């Protein structure tokens, strides 16, 4: 039911961990299953230099977090906001329909981390 790519990212997730002094941190949860994802971004000159995540959740949530961090690294903040859950799922070769909701966490975590980054910048 999962593509090889999903299984590979689940078994060897990229960019797991946290970034100390991250420029943006986004924490989101799925109220239906209780899974939680935290995204940490290091941003320089409006470009995402580094992205890491901690996901306490299902295999699809872990695989989509891993792929999402890979996709947004090196992108500008505006470009990263265009990385939707569908873009992440497609990059993984698709997800079973009943697991598509898991990919929404990654999109929301990216948005939340960027909002945090923008809010922090406004305060300085
Ligand atoms: Fe909760 Fe997948 S079942 S995110």
Automatic annotation (TrEMBL):
Q: Which GO terms describe its biological process?
A: iron-sulfur cluster assembly
Q: Name one GO molecular function term.
A: iron ion binding
InterPro entries, alphabetized: NIF_FeS_clus_asmbl_NifU-like, NIF_FeS_clus_asmbl_NifU_N
Please name one Pfam family that this protein belongs to.
NifU_N
Where would I find the NIF system FeS cluster assembly NifU N-terminal domain in this sequence?
1-122
UniProt cross-references to Gene3D superfamilies, sorted A to Z: 3.90.1010.10
Recorded protein name is Fe-S cluster assembly scaffold protein NifU
Taxonomy of origin reads: Bacteria, Pseudomonadati, Atribacterota, Atribacteria, Atribacterales
